[in-house]
Write a structure and sequence with these properties.
The chain is an all-alpha fold. The chain is built from three helices and no strands. The relative contact order is 0.08.
Length: 70
């Protein structure tokens, strides 16, 4: 959502609309940053969630993307 606002903002002529789009772009970006920091903090404090019980075929396929985890 933030990236399209950035592209639109650069194509709109300078003026009030561009300023409003810039403020919206900046506000949403800051909100995403804050939520990301909170998520990382919670992950550090609480740790990783317990592993889900997956079917054997999913475990085999995921090992190609996550080597070392079985």
């Amino acid at each position: 959502m933030v990236i399209p606002f950035g592209f639109i903002m650069m194509r709109v002529p300078a003026g009030e609309v561009q300023n409003q789009l810039f403020d919206l772009h900046r506000s949403i970006g800051f909100l995403i940053l804050c939520l990301s920091v909170i998520r990382v903090f919670v992950r550090v404090v609480k740790g990783a969630p317990p592993p889900a019980s997956l079917p054997r075929w999913q475990v085999r396929l995921s090992s190609g993307v996550h080597p070392g985890r079985r």
